[in-house]
Amino acid sequence: MTDKTFNGFARPDGSVGIRNKVLVIAVDECADGVVRNIAKGFDDVVVLTNWYTCMLGGNEETFHQMIEVGRNPNVAAVLVVAMGCGSILPEQIAAPIGCEGKPTATLSIDKAGGSRNAIREGREKLAPLVTYRNNLVRQPFPVSRLVVGVKCGGSDTSSGMTSNPTAGAAVDKLIAMGATAIGGELFELQGTEPVLDKRAVTPEVAKKIRRRIDEENRRWGVPGAEVETMSIGNCVGGLTTIEEKSLGALHKTGEQPIQDLLTIGPDGVDKPTVPGFYLSDVTMLCGGAGVNFAALGAHLILWTTASAGFNNAIVPVIRISGCKELINPDIDIDATGLVDGTATLDAVSDQTVKKALRVGSGEPTAVEDVADSTMTLYQKDRRLESLLGHTCPK
After folding, report:
1. To which H or E segment does residue 72 belong?
2. Phi/psi class of residue 313: alpha, beta or left (left: φ > 0; alpha: ψ in -120 to 50)?
3. How far is it between the farthest Cα atoms of the chain?
4. Which of 118, 236, 363, 378 suits 270 as a labelling partner, its CA being 20 to 30 A distant?
5. What burial class does residue 329 get, using C-beta atoms within 10 Å of its C-beta: 0-12 exposed, 13-18 middle, 19+ buried?
6. Interior CA angle at 355 toward 374 and 280, to 5°?
């Protein structure tokens, strides 16, 4: 690894991974217990369960996400398991994942003759996938192959002054090196539309961003079913309104032109087409955001916070904090020097870039494999979308 490269894993489809996971997908919740028992005893095997329903109709957003998480370059191989009585067949998930050479296998619990037989057969099918994974070695690749997600959470006053600007400056530097970055949680960008308009590469992209922010506002603000968006931690930490929170959140997106807005929906999952910065409809919900980022093809996430955070088992999370009162050993990047004047934004963002490249080469984040969140599949409620008149156009 140099200051302009990272050591990753080459995938058959030409992509590059920074982690080397084997993924086991339960396409319906009834299979969750079986897949977790299949995964026991194997290192770096991750479980993703569809908790919504075994029905496909109306759940196409979840369906596409399962496929795209399996395609994520941090995943070396995939086993897809179904109970056998639902509408989503394991082959429907495995076929597009493996169409360009990624090893896959499928299993039906009913066809295997019940749970115990399925666990035994699943372990037999998982073993060669793990062996394949174990034989892969890291190679050097340019930073231009790296895709970075950026998200905030557990925000307070310090976030807008320290961790968010640090992430934004790091994103700008990574993009200048040829990388791609993706921001999301559009709800927390409301009120910043004039700034985003100026950064959009075309008027059409600017209109798409405005439309998506408006849709997200209406999605989370249904009369009679409003959702709390300012947490106790936000308020105790000194934030008073969602607009004030948004101004801080805007900083984490940097200053680069916005190439497009990537959609995750019933028609599929958009992917970046050229290097640069993108917005997306990645949810503000933390666990769901991790899976959203994985589906978009992100390798890692820069997470800005006061102290709290999450980690995703496929897409490692680098935590950045500048809150002296709450900073703890879970934090990867200490940005408190920006408050007391002992550090500069340039220096702390450089530190963040270097950490991202080291994580890209295999260095674990502060809580990686220690505090992984559940792999939460999140999808927008299609019935609500219809009532709100959302058609999710591309």
Report:
1. none
2. alpha
3. 66
4. 363
5. exposed
6. 55
* pLDDT tens track for 173-227: 999 999 999 999 998 898 899 999 999 999 999 999 999 999 888 888 767 766 6
- Token pair of 303 as six digits: 């997470």
Rounded-to-integer distance, Cα 86 and Cα 194, Å: 47
pTM for this one? 0.94
Q: DSSP code of 284?
A: S
- 333 bridge partner residues: 320
Tally the residues of the chain. 394
| Rg, C-alpha atoms of the chain | 21
The tens digit of pLDDT for each residue in 2-17 reads: 678 999 999 999 999 9
Distances (CA, A) of 222 to 34, 80, 216, 343, 386: 38, 36, 11, 44, 13
Location of structure tokens 């607009």: 243
Token reading at 351: 């530190």
- Alpha-carbon span 38 to 116, nearest angstrom: 10
**Side-chain-side CA neighbours of residue 209 (13 Å):** 29
Say if residue 92 is exposed, middle or buried (CB neighbours under 10 Å; 0-12, 13-18, 19+): middle
Q: Which residues contact 98 (CB under 8 A, 6 or more apart)?
A: 78, 104
* 53 and 88 Cβ atoms separated by less than 8 Å: no
To 10 degrees, the CA torsion angle through 313, 315, 320, 326?
Answer: -20
Beta pairing partners, 264: 269
CA 155 vs CA 113, 150, 159, 310, 326: distances in Å: 49, 14, 6, 13, 11
Write phi, then psi, for 119 (nearest 5 degrees). -65, -45
What are the tens digits of pLDDT across the range 128-162?
Answer: 999 999 999 999 999 999 999 999 877 776 778 89
How far are the Cα atoms of 18, 147, 177 from residue 174, in angstroms, in the given order?
Answer: 16, 9, 5
